Structures are given as C-alpha cells and as structure tokens.
Give the backbone structure.
Amino acid sequence: MADRDPGELHAVEQIESPVAESNTKAKRKKLFAAFAGGVALIGAGYYGMDALVWSKHATTDNAYVGADVAQVTSQLAAPVAAVLVEDTHQVHRGDILVRLDDTDARIAVANAEANLATAIRRVQGLHATDSGLDAQIAARAADQGKAAAAVVAAQADVAKASLDLQRRQAVASTGAVSQDELTAVRTAYSNAAAALRAAQAAQAQAAAARNAAVGDRNANRALIANVTVDNNPEVLAARAALVQARVDLERTVIRAPIDGVVSRRQVQVGQRVQPGAMLMAVVPVQAAYVDANFKEVELKKVKPGQPVELTSDLYGEDVVFHGRVAGFSGGTGAAFALVPAQNATGNWIKVVQRLPTRIALDQRELAAHPLRVGLSMNVDINVSR
C-alpha cells in the first residue's frame, strides 16, 4: 500500500467509508436493543418482585418494643425502713420490694382492736339493759298504782274533814261548838286538802317516771332491734375500722405487682414517702409487645391476625421473632403529640402520617431472647395471609 499513489488511496477510502458507516449503525442498533432489553428485564424483574414479594409484605424499621409498665407506689405516709431491690433486678409477683416503718400502723391496729372490744361490750350491755328497763317500768307502774291509792285515801280524808266542818259550822251559832273545836276542824280540813294535793302530785310524778322508763326502753330497743351483737352497726363499724388498720399494716410491706425487671428506682432508706408517690417501676419483659409505626399508605392490606416476622438490633438478623398483628392505635402519632400539628393555615403542606400498629410477640421466643422497652425492631408483615 506504500507504493500506491494518492489518487488510488482516495478511491479506496471512498469505497470503504459506506461499509464503516453501515457497521457503526449496526453496532448502535445492537447497543440500543441491548439497553432496551435490559430496561425491559429490569422492569419485568421489578414487576415480578412487586407481584410475588413486595406486594405481599409490609415492612418498616420504625418500630420499638413496649410493655405495660407497672408503677410501684406507696399507699401510706411513712418512713422507708428497707429497700430490698435494685435496678435491673428480676422480680416475681408478690416479692417484697420495700418495707415501711410499721410502728404507727401497729398502734392503729391495737387501738382498733380495743375500740371493737368496747363496742361489743357496749352492745352486749344494751341487750342486758333491755330486761332491766322492763323491770323499771314495772316498778314505776307499781309506784303509779300506789300514788293513785294515796290520792283516793286523801280524797276520802278531805270528804270526811269537809263533812265534819259543815256539821260544826251549822251548830256554831247556837253555842253548841266552841271556837277552839271549830278552829281544829277547819285546820283538819285544810290539812286533808293539802294532803290530797300532795297525793295528786305524787301520782303525776309516778306517771311521769313510768313514761320516762318506757321511753328509755324504747330508745334502747331502737339500738338493738332486729340485730344481734355481731351485726350491730356500731360493732360493724368498729370491725371495719380494725380491718382497715390491718390492711394499712399489710401495706407497709410493698410487693411486686407483676413479674418483671425493676427500673427507675427512686426510693431510699430513711425517706418519708407520701401516698401515691412513685417508688420504682416493674417492666414485664415477658409480656412485651412491639409498636410499629407504618405510613398510612402502607396499611391498605394490613389486617389484625396477620403473621409478622421481626428482628432486633440487639440480637441481629440471626434471631427472628414471630408474632401477629394485634390491632391499630386510635390515632396517629401526630394526633397524640403534646403539640399537635396545626394544618389549618395558608402554607399547609401534606405530610404522610404514621399509625402505630400493635404486634403481639411469641412468649416462648421472648423467654429465650428477652427484649427491653424502647429497643428498635425491624418488622415484616405478611399481608398475603
């Protein structure tokens, strides 16, 4: 080719140029076809994954472990005598957590026992008094009869004295009766009349005494009517006060309300606690659950009862927890926030909300791999089932 002249070379190039251009176009078509095939393959793969896998699962990593934490509080005002647990201690329901000073509570029990005994004796005395009051009424009735007889006798004396006075007054003008005798008869009549008035007063007093005795008996019977010593209201009130005192004594020993782990211990020995003050919390780690915060657009196919697989950042992907969708919260996280979003403004921008979804966990798996409140979880709900 080095011996060819320039004219010959130019002729060769004119022949080869269409061939090269044709080859370039063919390569471009192949590349475009390959690119289109790759895009189609990717689209088909995406569609296939969406149809076979992604559309059948709802996943999120915005999920956290929760539990119904039990707060341990005091129901009495008393100094703390002993604290028997520390944070992170595992406790069972009924285990002693705190002991309060029970001196005042024991004194209250003794006082209530004494008051109950006094009430029982008083009611027994009321029952015994009833028969005594009946006897008093009978005695007052006898006194009333005696007074009535005295009135009758006094009336007879007055009648006799009046008759004697009338007789002597009738013959006094003839001189048959002396003035001394007439004066004596008049004095006798006055004494008889005075005695009658005294007898009548005694009769009224006897009647009043009998009525008073009847009133005392009726008042006493009102206190014991249709009741025995055991079910008398006064005895029942004293017994209830004793029960309350014993309950307060038992409350000086504060026990764990549930099984769990002690957390947030705030009580110290010597501290005087008040009723309702929180001493510590017990977290039921064996009854933990997960709240998954799904976007509202992800919950179309999520239903209660669907199976869930979860992994924890604590254990990694090698430990898989299983559970089921228990239900949905009554509102979004924004709705229950301390400062809810105010969207009724001119510059409103729609924000996708998240709805807490409660997931119940397998208790056996929790026992094997305990979780703690607040841990992050990865949630995968199988919405095809």
